[in-house]
Amino acid sequence: MAAPSAVPGPVPSAVPGPTPSAAPSPAPHTAASAAADTAFRSALDVVRAVEPRVADAIGAEIEDQRASLKLIASENYASPAVLLAMGNWLSDKYAEGTVGRRFYAGCRNVDTVEALAAEHARELFGADHAYVQPHSGIDANLTAFWAVLSQRVESPALARAGVRNVNDLTEQDWAELRRDLGNQRMLGMSLDAGGHLTHGFRPNISGKMFEQRSYGTDPATGLLDYDAIRAAAREFRPLILVAGYSAYPRRVNFRLMREIADEVGATLMVDMAHFAGLVAGKVLTGDFDPVAHAQIVTTTTHKSLRGPRGGMVLCNEELAEHVDRGCPLVLGGPPSHVMAAKAVAFAEARRPEFRQYAQQVVDNAQALAEGLLRRGTRLVTGGTDNHLVLADVSGHGLTGRQAEAALLDSGVVTNRNAVPQDPNGAWYTSGVRIGTPALTTRGLGTAEMDEIADLIDTVLRATAPATTADGRPSKAQYRLDAGVREAVTKRAAELLAGFPLYPGVDLV
Ligand SMILES: *Cc1c(COP(=O)(O)O)cnc(C)c1O
Asked: Where along the chain is composition biased (Pro residues) (predicted)?
């Protein structure tokens, strides 16, 4: 291990300035081209002339991102082409409806970008249909849930009543349909096993819509237990079986999940918000490719997929007409400028370099996992085969909250996360989630991941819980050795100096 990165990242340069744009680097945008630097500088000047504090905050953000080891598993760096495709006149256009069927006039340019985004998405993922309007992951999930309800509950009700439109139902039939829509079941992954709030949990609207039950992971191995999921599905008989996660470090066998869904008459929905980039980059294939097995797949576009902040739904032909009614069902006018940026991002993801990127994300996560294990930190499931590692910090005598804060003090940005059956609950937690998509984009490879494992280990060893007034260890307060904090901050900065981020943009 500790082999040099397979991804030729941006050329480390001591002299900030334009980088030759001819370099065939898979991550050229991390060392932005002179044209992009100029564009960002000019854009900020225009903003500064109206509200300088906003321009300053934007400039400070790139400074912060340059200076921190960004290990938040859901974050990335979108390319200048993606970012710039969002800041323009497409934002001003209303375009409710779908391509060629708009409720507004003058939508030909929106039609162009939406059709392109959908076409790239279908090709990239091998999907029958792509709906690129959702503004975010949660909107994509709402669209998908309601598309399934529309297909499986509303359409049969309309057929029974002999009408085509809900407006033509009698008051009694309408009341009955509303009751039926609100009386459906969903089976999803439990939050502490790595599931997501939008998969039927009470604080989210999905939990108020559906009667939900969740499946967890095997307490001994931390892995999904498909026999247990099958047994739960047989007993609960959900309308929708949801697979997908935010904090599970292993692959999911979607072929088996589909088998389970079919057996109980459920629709399989996969939320690949976190790992869409690994699907696009062909790291997750065969049984592990959700699009090949699920009737409907949702995603964000800004996480490992490295596009603009947004969402998307992919589905089969039968669900397409229902998904396309996302607006007006749960969405308003589509963000046309973001659809343009999605088209750009998907075009990037169709390049061969993106496959190298996706493989490097996983190689990096595995190098990080090995580095942590070797130094004595326990990992949930003992390792990873995707883009994230879930470290259990209870062996260091810390809560996830303390570990997250001590790491942040030292320039290492992660986020705390519950581990299965977490004794500290969802707020303090016992885990830290560490992801590699962003730093891989920045050009870091497996050797740097081992160095990062050492930084993390060094901080955790130098951190101890503070003592509360009644003499017990605090779950929130901690003491971090100041010398260690300074040394790690310095090492993190030195590491990042080799991987400049927009070196030609000096905004503050
Ligand atoms: C991030 C995430 C979402 C929500 O995405 P937003 O764009 O923040 O709304 C939904 N599902 C999963 C599994 C996620 O990880």
From this structure: 7-27
138 lines ligand 1 (CB under 6 A): yes
User: Would you call 493 exposed, middle or buried from its count of C-beta atoms within 10 A (0-12, 13-18, 19+)?
Assistant: middle
The neighbour count for residue 208, using CB atoms within 10 Å, is 12
486 labeled part of a ligand binding site: no
Residue-wise pLDDT tens digits, 33-46: 788 888 999 999 99
Annotated active-site residue 370? The verdict is no
Among candidate residues 313, 309, 314, the one with its CA nearest the CA of residue 342: 309
Angle subtended by helix axes 446-461 and 400-409, to nearest 10: 110
Contacts of 204 (CB under 8 A, 6+ apart): 138, 197, 198
CB 343 within 8 A of CB 117: yes
Q: How far apart are the C-alpha atoms of 16 and 465, rounded to whole Å?
A: 42
Q: Is the minimum distance from the CB of 336 to ligand 1 under 6 angstroms?
A: no
Closest to 434 (Cα-Cα) out of 187, 249, 296: 249
Task: Taking the CA atoms of 236, 238, 244 and 246 in sequence, report the sign of the dihedral they define.
Answer: negative
Mind listing the domains of the chain with CATH numbers? 91-349 (3.40.640.10), 353-496 (3.90.1150.10)
Cα dist from 137 to 132, 167, 270, 364, 416, whole Å: 11, 30, 12, 25, 21
Q: pLDDT tens digit string along 238-273?
A: 999 999 999 999 999 999 999 999 999 999 999 999
Give the span between the Cα atoms of 439 and 449, in whole angstroms: 9
309 CA → ligand 1 middle, Å: 10
Q: CA–CA separation, 484 vs 333, rounded Å? A: 51
Q: How far apart are CA 379 and CA 473, in angstroms?
A: 23
CB distance 300 to ligand 1 below 6 Å: yes
